[in-house]
């Protein structure tokens, strides 16, 4: 159960970070409304808060989260940007997810 909860929390966290950054990107580079900065800021605040919900050392959480972020960014590339990932993108994303699993779920000395 802890595996599912931790992994789901990482995925939600990644989506919040990517969404906040993407909305800011739309404003800065695509000439979209500055009103996008309100949901962007809320999304980034949610991202920071979600990272605090993990019951382990912050450094370990940040390191493992990076792997999920990479996977979600490649998924975003495909679904939002409409660019199909290469085989290398997918391999890299799955390697990153494997790294997350090793960091978070390997036995730890107490």
UniProtKB/TrEMBL annotation:
Q: Give the membrane topology.
A: Multi-pass membrane protein
Q: Which UniProt keywords apply?
A: Cell membrane, Membrane, Transmembrane, Transmembrane helix
Compartments where located: Cell membrane
Q: Which residues form the signal peptide?
A: none
Tell me the superkingdom of the source: Bacteria
- Give me the segments passing through the membrane: 7-28, 34-54, 61-80, 86-106
- PANTHER family to which the protein is assigned, alphabetical: UPF0060 MEMBRANE PROTEIN YNFA
Task: State the family it belongs to.
Answer: Belongs to the UPF0060 family.
Question: This chain belongs to which protein, by name?
Answer: Small multidrug resistance family-3 protein
Which source organism does the UniProt entry give? Nitrosomonas marina
Q: Taxonomic lineage per UniProt?
A: Bacteria, Pseudomonadati, Pseudomonadota, Betaproteobacteria, Nitrosomonadales
